Write the structure tokens for this entry.
Amino acid sequence: MEVAPSSEAYLLHLLIIELSVKSRYSRYMSNVFLRALLHPMQYKGVFKKRTLILREIICESETIYSFIFTMPEPFVWNAGEHGILTFPSTHIIGKKWRAFSIASSSDENALRISTIITENPSDFKKHLLLLEQGSKMALHGPFGEFTLSKKTRRIVGIAGGIGITAFRALITDIISGKIQNTTLTLIYSAIGSYTFKEEFDLLLPHPSVEIIYTRTPEEVNKELNTQVTQHKNSAHYFISGSPRMIEALRTSLQSKGITQIINDSFKGY
């Protein structure tokens, strides 16, 4: 018997399906469950189901789109948290959910997610683009450990491509003063256009936030080595990007004796 989409068990139903088939998502979901076991408090929000209403779609670049939602019942989240989006009544072929970084600050009174949508998107993303103003989506969350602890004072961030979405809310909250006594140096690498750059340019310079724009892995490594030499383990290192990029940078940082590494494992690609 099929589980009703309105049921809280629906999310577990979807996750179990992903784990039961041999697909490129099964390894990813195994990692999600492991992290949830290690950090139960950060993941309890995954069982909170909320309704979102589309306000607008913004084309950020040739292949990157932002979706801005309002919330009939307002809720708050921490910068760096995620949500799992599902369609409440639309039949989706293939993977029926996506985990996205929440790119907006909860102080913006709107929930924003951004993602890459190519010429031949998945059925899920195809239907995202077909959403009209007023369309409803279901959100499970917020949750995740890509967030600041009370002890976090200095952050060295590395964002690759669409991985910048995980940092937008953090930058917004630091500059607005919602997050205090914390500094961020962000190394942002992209092949094409830098998503949110025009927005960041309006907010910077700021004494607590610095963004270093790079293009190549060599440039990223050079800037990261500078930060490691300067701050060592007095900083927390936050990494958001492709799984390959995250693995390479984690290995590099660990080889240098860095222990405070947090990476974003939820990809809304």
